Amino acid sequence: MLIGIGVFVSVANLAGSGDVDVRLGDDEFVVGPAEQLAAAIERDDRPLLFQDLLVGGQRDIWVQHLAADPDAGWVAFDARLAGQPRSCTLEWVADDGRFVDPCDGTVVPADGGDQPGYPTRVDDDGLLVVDLTPEGRPGRGTTTSTTAPSAARPRP
């Protein structure tokens, strides 16, 4: 019981000091087998939407494949325009090969255009990995910070 009280007091002191970053999740999101994901996107003519399931999470992302080679042409980017609420998640319009903001009609190209993006890679095991490192600083994990990541996204 004394240990529990000691831990509580220590955590309370740290939290009150303002020096604590709350880490929620991993720096990298392993999406899955690139070959299967590329085939699914081509078959369904629809990129993949991943919603942030953390409590209060707001970082929803689209993962898109834009190449014949399943190991190339991957992009990941924010699923909403800056400042838009979650109800304004970009919608994929397959007939036009673009995204549209359902709230204001803004059109975003298939590669995400100027949307904040996240670097992608296919690892040695053939898995698609999206780097969610905030502010391009490895080891920080997904934080409660509202600052958008500044890492550039590779273009197809």
Mean pLDDT: 79
Strand content bin = 15-25%
Helix content: 10-25%
Radius of gyration: 18 Å
Q: Based on CA inertia axes, which overall geometry fits? A: globular
Distance, first to last CA:
57 Å
Task: Please report the number of helical segments.
Answer: 2
Query: How many beta-strand runs?
Result: 10
- Contiguous runs where pLDDT drops below 50 for at least 5 residues: 19-24, 138-156
Helix and strand sequence: HEHEEEEEEEEE
Characterize the main sheet.
Answer: 4 strands, antiparallel
Q: Within the largest sheet, what's the order of strands? A: 2-3-4-8
Structural category is alpha+beta
List keywords for this structure.
156 residues; alpha+beta; 2 helices; 10 strands; 17% helix
Reconstruct the topology from this structure.
Blueprint: H1 2-17, E1 28-33, H2 34-44, E2 48-50, E3 61-65, E4 74-78, E5 91-93, E6 98-100, E7 107-109, E8 117-118, E9 120-122, E10 127-131
Antiparallel strand pairs: 1-10, 2-3, 3-4, 4-8, 5-6, 6-7, 9-10
